[in-house]
Write a structure and sequence with these properties.
This protein has eight helices and five strands. The chain has 214 residues and is an alpha/beta fold. It has a five-stranded parallel beta sheet with strand order 2-1-3-4-5, with helices on both faces. The N terminus is likely disordered.
């Protein structure tokens, strides 16, 4: 399917800073960068008069929690960020990694996210893992098993996120609508389309705006 064209926005130079941590779901694999959820979120925030600069993104397709941890160390970012989002874990599930290891590494990443947010937990936002089992890519796989495992991983990241006092967004139920709506899937038959990312932003936007008192 063709992606909806989104005009490239212009971001202010003096707005809130935004760091997005994750994997393919953060960079927006198979869609234009401007259609990814971090860019759509920044654009939507600016439209709501909450000025945000262009996102800084540490994410790559295929990354697991340990690979994201290593990449963050390699980047050695020293600044603080006003907004930090975290979405990670699908590749741990895909590779059949140990769930307890995921928990420990996810908690480490949560701590890192809080540190980048200058210790302000109200400025950290965690997004659940979407269910890729409903996509055309998974048609020859055990979709019920994928759903169970995604739910297991999300139960872990939700528990640890709420325990840490951080805002959690459960976008997984909506991601399963892709089973009946091809417009929610990108052209590669696996990753979310710009339309689905827009739905995520619809959930995030009010909470992020509220966190900054606008």
């Amino acid at each position: 399917m063709d992606e909806i064209e989104i005009a490239s926005p212009t971001y202010p130079q003096d707005g809130l800073s935004y760091l997005a941590l994750g994997d393919s779901y953060t960079i927006g694999e198979a869609v234009p960068a401007v259609s990814s959820f971090p860019y759509q979120l920044a654009t939507a925030l600016n439209a709501q008069k909450t000025k945000v600069t262009a996102p800084t993104i540490i994410a790559r397709t295929g990354w697991t929690t340990d690979e994201l941890i290593a990449a963050i160390k390699d980047k050695a970012l020293t600044g603080k960020y006003d907004i930090v989002t975290l979405l990670i874990g699908v590749n741990n599930q895909y590779r059949g990694y140990n769930a307890d290891t995921y928990r420990a590494e996810f908690v480490q990443l949560l701590t890192t996210a809080i540190t980048y947010a200058g210790g302000n937990k109200k400025h950290v936002f965690v997004v659940s893992i979407p269910d890729w089992g409903v996509t055309p890519f998974a048609q020859s796989r055990d979709r019920a098993q994928i759903a169970r495992e995604i739910d297991q991983y999300n139960a872990i990241n939700k528990e640890e996120t709420l325990k840490a006092g951080i805002t959690y967004f459960d976008i997984t139920p909506g991601s399963r609508n892709a089973a009946a709506d091809a417009a929610l899937v990108a052209s590669d038959g696996l990753h979310p389309s710009g339309k689905m990312y827009g739905e995520w932003v619809g959930k995030l936007l009010p909470e992020v705006v509220k966190a900054f008192g606008n």
